[in-house]
Each structure stands twice: as C-alpha cells, then as structure tokens.
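Could you please review the protein record set out just below?
***
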Amino acid sequence: MLQFAAESTHERLCAWIEENYTPHTETDSELLIANTVTANITALGYVSDKFDVGEGFHYESWEDYSCDVIPQVKTYMDGRPALRSGGIKFSFSHESDNTCFDVLVLSAWVYDADMNNNMITIASVPQAHSEQWLAFEKEVQRIFHSAIPYRGKVYIVGGVENTFDATVEMDDIYLEGSLKQDIMKDIDAFFEKGVEIYQRLKIKPFRKMLLAGVPGTGKTMLCSAIAGWGQEKDYFVIYVSGSNQYGAKFWKIHEALDMAASSDSPTIVIVEELDSYLDDENKAQMLNVLDGSESPGNKHGTILIATTNHPEKIDDRVLKRPGRLDRVFIIPEMESEDIAEKMLRQYLGDAWKDEHVEIVPDLIGRPGAFIREVALYALTMAAYNNEETLTVDMLSNSLETLVKQIEAKDDFLTAHKKQEMGLAAQRKAKRNGFLYD
C-alpha cells in the first residue's frame, strides 16, 4: 500500500509499533506525533556529530528500520532527497557511561481531501528521554527551516522553484554618483559592526531598507547583485516571490523572516514590490514586523531589502517613520552621460564602437532597462540582417522605434484610462437589462 487514508493512518502506525517494536524494548515508551522534518533525509545529514541533546546525552546516528506496512517512498527538493516514508531508528548515548536509548520514527504518506498528499509521522520515545528527543527534533527543524541543506544558492519562499543562482555581478551595476557604494557600505557595515552595536543596546539586529524608483531603473538587478555578494560571503540569502498561485501574500514574508530567525549565519531577505504585500488585511502585521515585535531574532543579523515602483502606495506609517524602514534609497533614471555610456558599452560588448557615443545624450532621463533594450534590439536586428558591424544608424533606429512604442502606449493608456477594459468591463456587462458587478 503506497498511501493510507488520512483518518486511519495514526491507528495503523501506532498498532504496528505496539505489535512489532514496543514489546522488544526494555523501557517504557510513549507514542508522540513527531515533526515530519525527522523524516527528511538530507536535513538529517546536517545534524552535527555528537549533537548535545541535554543531560549528558548526544545524538549518535540513524538507520533504516524495516516496517512491512510502509514502503520507502522519497521526495526530492532541489535535486536532493527530502521526505521519505518508512521506518527510521535514531540512536542516542551518554557521554560518560554506557547508557543509551533509541527512538523509532514511522512516517507514511496520506491523502487528505483538503491538503492532498501529506505526511504523518509517529515516534516511539522512551518516557525517560522525551526531553532529549524533543531537543533533537528541534535541531532538525532548525536545520530544515533555515534551509541549511539547500544553501549555496538564493533560497526562494513562495515561488515555483526552490532556489536560483544570483548571476549578476556588482561591477555590472551602474548607478548615479556614489549611490551603489552608499547602499553596499550600509549593508556591509551593519553585518561587520552594526550587529554588535544593536546587541549591546539590546535591540534586535534587524535592519530594513527600501529601494524606490520608477520601473526599469535597475532595482531588480541591484537586488540580484546584492544576493550574489551575500552568497560570496556565505550569508543566507532568501528571496520572497509572489510568482506561485498564492501571489503576493504577507505569510510569505513572515515565513522568510522565521527562516532568518533560525539561521546560523548573517541573512539577507529580499522582497520585491513591497507595496503589493501591504493590503488592508496584512498592514497591521507588517507594522508589527517592522517595529520589531515580530521581527527575526537572528543573533548574526538580518537585513530586509525591499523594492517598490510605487512608494506613494506605501502607508506613511511605514514609509516615513525611522525604525520601520531604516533607510530609503531612491534609484533614479539616467542622469549623467558618463554612466549612460558605461551601461551602453556593457550591453554592446564587442560590438561597441567609439562612434556609438553619439546616441548617449538621447539616453539621459531614461531608466537602465531602456538602454538595455536599445542595445539588445540593435544587436538582434544586425545579426538578423547578417551585418558584421553595428552602425550608429542601427542604434539610432533602435532608439527611435522604442521611443515611438512608448509614446504610442502612453497615448493609448491616456485615451482609455477612463474606459474599463477586459474582465472589469465584462463584469459590468448588462444582464437582463441591469448592470451587475
């Protein structure tokens, strides 16, 4: 049987333990609902050797335990074994004498009409050692909850994927003046010196930064570069995503901050489009988090880096009170020809010619994404037409067509801004002579 019905699983597992395991133990045992992380094979591999569980006892090892009613069925996460059904026996011993004890854990997949596939886990624990078992269980939960087995990449909360590689280099980020240096100095100073100061003042070492600017100014690229910077320092980097079926929900931020609180290293939490998470239902919870009452207690320090295209949508209680958002950095559109030229050179690569500098003045006042599109479209058209050299005319044509497209879009939206379109209009269609919404 690969899967039990949810309502009968506990009874089956408990009955099997009592018939096949408990009679063979020398001490009185009790049956506990165990945390499913104790059946996570990869997480178990990260428990430190001789992990101290209290009163002189430490964790020794685990091994498979044959259970003829539960097949061993694994799941995988990020290419590594994760939850596995079946039996596992954990062994613990005392550091100074020959006292030892074992804990048997049985895990089975169940089907629940509300939760679909889920796992139920039962542990047979010697009554005299329940506290030691719970200490071990807590450590495995911390390891799993802080994604220690899945480090090395940016960990995603609430996305379709579990992790991603941060591939943007900090040298690829072009911002006006000393803005990039100011942002990175703030982050680095917090982790290097600020955490100790926060702790000395008995303040949770939790810093919050907002990157604000119109779309296309490079906020996402900057966040990716910060993530890569953090990975190089072996920090824990968490990205909160609104891309799965649940969308932008506050519980995703809360989950990420819980993971940060369980982290054994400095942690960076990245939340894009913060305004989309601040609906009326969740605003009070977010204020509690930003105030500190529900913020992460990571002793190594946590920085929350949020972005927004619409700072005007963020409540003044969040935006204008120091301590809720410690710093707000405005990411501007292109203001200097020097930065615009460097960015254009970067995107054109080997195709760059000195004469291309002619179009740089026309890039001023545009976001970085605009410059990237000018370069990419020109390169693509040159390759499509089998041109060996990218001319100024090709770049100018790319720029002109993009400007016309933007102007046409703006004209279209202006003309239709008072006109409801798509589903909104359909909802207000007439039914039996009446408008409905």
User: Anything to note?
Assistant: The CA atoms of residues 128 and 343 lie 67 Å apart.
